[in-house]
Structures are given as C-alpha cells and as structure tokens.
Design brief:
It is built from 12 helices and 15 strands. The chain has helices spanning about 5-10, 10-20, 25-65, 65-105, 145-150, 155-160, 175-190, 205-210, 235-240, 300-315, 365-370, 395-405, and strands spanning about 125-130, 155, 170, 195-200, 205, 230, 245-250, 255-265, 285-295, 320-325, 335-345, 350-360, 370-375, 380, 385-390. The chain starts with a helix and ends in a 23-residue tail after the last helix. The longest helix is centred in the first third of the chain and has 40 residues, at about 65-105. The chain folds into 2 domains: about 5-105, Orthogonal Bundle (Helix Hairpins); about 120-420, Bira Bifunctional Protein, Domain 2 (BirA Bifunctional Protein, domain 2). The radius of gyration is 27 Å and the shape is elongated. It is an alpha+beta fold.
RNA sequence: GGAGAGGUGACCGAGUGGCUUAAGGUGCACGCCUGGAAAGCGUGUGUACGAGAGUACCGUGAGUUCGAAUCUCACCCUCUCCGCCA
C-alpha cells in the first residue's frame, strides 16, 4: 500500500508508474474524487466531535457544582443529545466513504523502481548475467517427465486419482531427493548465510494475506478453507513476513533474516493449458524461502545479497542459470524490483524460473504496520521487506533430473547432496 | 467441547462512568556527574489522519450514555484445569 498523502500529492507520478505496468489508471481518478469527499466529511464530523467533547467537560464541571449549576447542565445535555445523533449519522457516511477509499488504495500497485526496464510482458525482461556451462550430451536429453516415467519416480496418474490435475506423487529416488534438497538449502542458508530457520503455519488468516498483498485483489489465486477465515499459503513469504506484523523492531536487530521451508499452494487460475506436463506448474510444491526486514537505506543492497544467496544454491549444485530483471509489465503487484533466476533445462531446451527475489520497499510494511525505531530517535519508521526463493524445491528437483541424466535414464546425484542422501534405501 | 482467569503504550503493569491530558516501572533519548564508563540524579519519550485547530485509538465489533479503558451484548485470542485426540 502506498501512503495516502503521497498518492494525493504525487497523483501524476503514481498514474504514470501504474501505466508503466500496463494497468488502468481510472482507479486513480476515482481516488482523487473519493479522497476529497472524505476530507470534507472528516472536517465536518471532527468539528461536531470537538463541540461534544468541549460540552462534556463543561457538564462534568457543572455536575460537581451546586444545585443551580447542576440545573444549568440540563439544557446542555439536551443539546448534546442532538449533536450526538448528527455525529452518529455522519460517522456512518464516513465509514462508507472510507471503505470505498480503502478498496481503491489497496488496489494500487507499488511504484516500480526507476531502473526497472519498461516493457509489457516477460519477453521484455532483461538478462543481467548467466552462470555455468550448459551440459552437452552424447544422446538426446529427455524431459523430466519422460525420465520420471521411465524410472518410476513420479506418478502423475495416481496423484490425479488422489487429487486431480496438477498434483504429483513422488516415489523413492524423487521423494528422497526432494527431502535432501530441502535440508541442503536450509543448512546452507542458516550455516553460511546467517538466516534464522522458522517453520510457520501453512494456513493463515485474511489479515496476513492482506498485509503481504495477496488480498483483496488476488483471492482467486488462493485456496480457501470452507467456513474458516483461513487460506493455504501460496508461499512462505506470507506467514514469515507477518511474523512482525503490528510490531516495532529495534534498529540494532536489523536486518532480520529468516529462511523457511513450506509447501506452497496455488490455484493457478487463469493458467489453464499452460505447462500441463511434468512438475513445472503444480497446485502444491515445496519451497525454501528467504525473507528479510531491513532499514530503507539498505534494502537495495540487501536485494543484491539475497539474490547472491539464492544463486549460491544453484552454483553449489552446478546447475547453469541466468538472472533477469523483470520489466515493468511482468513485475508483481507489491514489488518495486524483482530479479528472476532461471535454471537451464536441457530436456526442454529452455530456461525456466526457479527463484524470484524482490524488494517491496515499505509497501508490505505499511499494510502490516511493521516498523522499527532508528537508533537515537523517538519516531518510528516503516521497515523495508524483501523475499526470494532459495529455491523452489520441486523445480530444482526437475532441473537436477534433466541436467544430471545419463544415457540409461538414471540420474546422477550432485556431489553436495551426497551427505544428505542414503541411496541404498528406497 | 465444559469451567475459570485474562487481553491496556516499544515492554511490564495500575486503572469499575467525567482533573485519565492512561499512574508507576523498564527500555530508549538528551543533560548533569566521570579521565572514560557503570551506578545515581534531572528532563523528555505512543500511533494514525489533518495545513492547523483538532479528531480517533486501551483485543475486535455493536450497544447504553450528554460523556466509556471503565457498564451491557456478541465474537476473537492467550493462560489454567477437565474431557477428547496425533
């Protein structure tokens, strides 16, 4: 959420930046109209409340006085009875307008950073670096779903029986590899990169979903629990960022860095027919997430570090990848800048997203009231929040399958995973 | 699910209708003291909206009242005991 006053005073800038994302700006014209209404009504109600408060104090004094003073209070009380009634009616109108304004402000995306390339969709993302050498094969490399079937390590049909399309049942090698990858990533981030490991709830309430920006605009992307104010998390970003909702942190504690393993649940509404084969796009997948709380001064440096922490996982697994900066049209609603890491998939002969690292500035912090107190100052400020995948475990798994495949269809184990894997057991 | 206790500022904690403008403490900031620090002493310290005057905020929402942290109702959460349960 952007600051109300900021939008008011920089309406043209907000419009221009919203347009850069390829979004409609009629919402911002409506903002100006409703905002003016609200301020006018607010002035009116507050005037009446001031009158009531002043009179209440007078009544209090009179009531403590002589009999004649007490009598004098009566007409004043009568007058206030009417004033109170007016206040009640105007407050109702104000609630209505405020709700309207809230809906508008919650639907305005974050401002994209000035170094974000302008573009319409993912085809205009800018490659900033590549790493590693694409493996060469003496045979035609297979897709991971071909390998999965041959080796009998992922069973999509049974998963469809259990749950439906876009679910997978990992078996033997694949399920053990998933678990090994998770442990490897968590150990790396906690032992080498200084993150604190947390294991959060996988169901969160609407207040949490609102703070990080999934609600109210993107409800159709979420799975909701019937008759409960609970949603399945689409990413650990939601519970982990909300750890400090409604809190004031000490500057000396920043940056705060968490890493969390969770399953992620996404409805994938609007992506019918896309990536229907294999493990790429599932309703449920595992992910190790990185989340940071920083001061405003350091958030962009911390974004670079976060990206580096995620890249390290791929480097240690020796998986080739590239990093792209998302263009304005492909940028998420709450983010000001995002790097995607895309891993090389030889079976499909393309790069696919395996991590997304974003700086949200104070956009989420304002929604969630996450502040910190600067050293030596009495006024608190909003923190900046960042997060990134470190990494999406399911996609790492399929990347290993495709990159480490051998001619006979078996899959070699990356060196760094050996301590995490006991291959003699199925 | 049943019974009970509770939810107040960054934190702890007092407060049962109007001098509450939320006591007191901790923490934090500034000053005094000190060679420097600690301790001690003094002063100051919430958030949001608003140009400002001001208004709102004591778990959430409704209600009673001229006036609610305080009274009423509903709900949420935490703790203790009982029941059930991995």
């Amino acid at each position: 959420m952007l600051e109300l006053r900021f939008i008011r005073e920089n309406i043209d800038l907000v419009k221009e930046k919203t347009a850069r994302r390829g979004m409609e700006t009629t919402l911002l014209d409506e903002f100006s109209r409703v905002d003016k209404q609200r301020l006018a009504l607010l002035a009116k109600v507050e005037g009446l409340k001031n009158k009531r408060n002043t009179a209440s104090a007078e009544i209090a004094v009179l009531k403590r006085g002589s009999q004649s003073d007490r009598d004098k209070a009566e007409p004043l009380i009568g007058e206030m009875r009417e004033t109170s009634q007016q206040i009640k009616e105007l407050d109702l109108q104000l609630d209505d307008i405020q709700e309207k304004l809230q809906r508008i402000v919650m639907a305005i995306p974050n401002l994209c950073n000035d170094d974000v390339p302008v573009g319409q969709d993912e085809s205009e993302n800018i490659e900033v670096k590549t790493w590693g050498e694409k493996p060469s094969f003496s045979f035609k490399p297979k897709t991971h779903w071909e390998l999965a079937e041959e080796q009998d390590i992922v069973d999509f049909e049974t998963a469809a029986k259990l749950s439906g399309a876009r679910f997978a049942l990992l078996k033997g090698f694949a399920s053990k590899l998933d678990r090994a990858l998770t442990n490897f990533m968590l150990d790396l981030h906690t032992e080498k990169h200084g993150y604190t490991e947390v294991l959060p709830p996988f169901l969160v309430n609407s207040a949490s979903m609102t703070a990080t920006g999934q609600l109210p605009k993107f409800e159709e992307d979420l799975f909701r629990i019937k008759d409960w104010d609970l949603y399945l998390i689409p990413t650990a970003e939601v519970p982990v960022t909300n750890i400090h909702r409604d809190e004031t942190l000490n500057e000396s504690d920043l940056p705060i860095k968490y890493t969390a393993f969770t399953p992620c649940f996404r409805s994938e509404a609007g992506s019918h027919g896309r990536d229907t084969r294999g493990l790429i796009r599932q309703h449920q997948f595992n992910k190790v997430e990185l989340v940071k709380f920083t001061t405003p001064e350091t958030s962009f440096d911390e974004l670079e570090n976060l990206l580096q922490d995620a890249e390290t996982v791929l480097q240690m697994l020796n998986l080739p990848y590239r990093v792209v900066t998302l263009c304005s049209g492909d940028l998420g609603f709450s983010a000001t800048k995002t790097y995607d890491i895309e891993v090389w998939l030889p079976g499909q002969n393309c790069y696919r997203e395996i991590s997304s690292c974003s700086n949200f500035l104070d956009f989420q912090a304002r929604r969630g009231r996450i502040r910190y107190r600067p050293q030596g100052q009495k006024k608190s400020r909003l923190v900046h929040t960042l997060n990134g995948s470190g990494l999406a475990v399911g996609r790492t798994l399929l990347a290993i399958m495709e990159n480490y495949q051998q001619e006979d269809g078996t899959i070699r184990l990356p060196e760094v995973l050996k301590p995490y894997f006991k291959p003699r057991f199925h």
